[in-house]
Amino acid sequence: MANVADGARASELVDDVTTTIVRRVLAGCDSEFADWIQTGLGLARLFPGFLGGGWLKESSVSDVCVIVLKFETRAALDNWLTSSLRAGWLRTGRNIAVDTPAEQVSRMEGMFKRLGSDLRNNGQVESPGIIAPDGIPSPK
Q1: 59, 131 Cβ separation under 8 angstroms
Q2: How is residue 60 annotated by DSSP?
Q3: How many Cβ atoms from other residues are within 10 Å of residue 135's Cβ?
Q4: Helices 30-44 and 84-92 meet at what angle, rounded to 10?
Q5: From the CB of residue 71, how many other CB atoms can be counted at a distance below 10 Å?
Q6: SS3 of 80, please?
Q7: SS3 letters for 119-134?
Q8: What is the pLDDT of residues 83-133, one digit of tens each?
Q9: Nearest partner of 72 among 42, 101, 41, 47, judged by Cα
Q10: Torsion over CA: 96, 99, 105, 108 (sign)
């Protein structure tokens, strides 16, 4: 029989929201992009409800990076997304990267379903692999 506390914890997790933001790094700006994203993540940590975040490079030869942010609630995410602090930080990155529309998902599984769908729609059968910020590629 399920523990009531476990059920309560499971329902709390449903309210969190994860968003992915895809950016294309401009040629020659890889190092500046890494610093810029770390600054943005540091600023997001200042906001109530921020649960964590990071970024992934699509492949070693791609200019596409995916930023992942997780907040306790949609309201907490919206507070960050509409903040003047974030707007100022975004302005500092205009010469480093360009963004594409973000899509919010409520669970991490949704993000991976979206990425898999994007790969199929682009004619790619398998993932190109992910390069971590430290430059060590994940297995394909």
Answers
A1: yes
A2: T
A3: 9
A4: 170
A5: 26
A6: helix
A7: HHHCCCCCCCCCECCC
A8: 999 999 999 999 999 987 655 555 555 555 555 555 445 444 343 444 444
A9: 47
A10: negative
